[in-house]
Amino acid sequence: MICLKICSDSTSEDLKPIAEALHGVLGIPITIRSKNLRGLRMERGVVMDDNYTGPVLEEVILTNKIIRKIPTEGVYKGKAVVVAPIRTSGGEVVGALGVVDLVAALDILSVFREYPDIVDEVEESRKRLS
């Protein structure tokens, strides 16, 4: 039987199937690392770095909290990211997983300015469902 397990010492090769699956679903840059070892960075279907760490991944591992921010250093400097801890069932952090935060990157106001009827359409749909 084949089984994937993640621990504090998982290598980038151990984490690669998770990164590939998430990248395949979302299609956005993915970063992942274990607590004690560097991991990988994946973009455009390709592992760009298999010895990767980043400042937000490291911060999440230290704090064991989800962090949304714009890094001031590293590969994603100036880009909104969101990174979450990978925890055991007991809450102990064993790694971190990050993505470029597309929601933070959207300029919602400009979207609504360009498509002014969308608010009316949403309201009409909500009324029909009520």
Automatic annotation (TrEMBL):
Specify one Pfam family. DUF2111
Annotated InterPro entries: UCP006557
Superkingdom classification of source:
Archaea
Q: Which protein are we looking at? A: DUF2111 domain-containing protein
What organism is listed for this UniProt entry?
Methanococcoides burtonii (strain DSM 6242 / NBRC 107633 / OCM 468 / ACE-M)
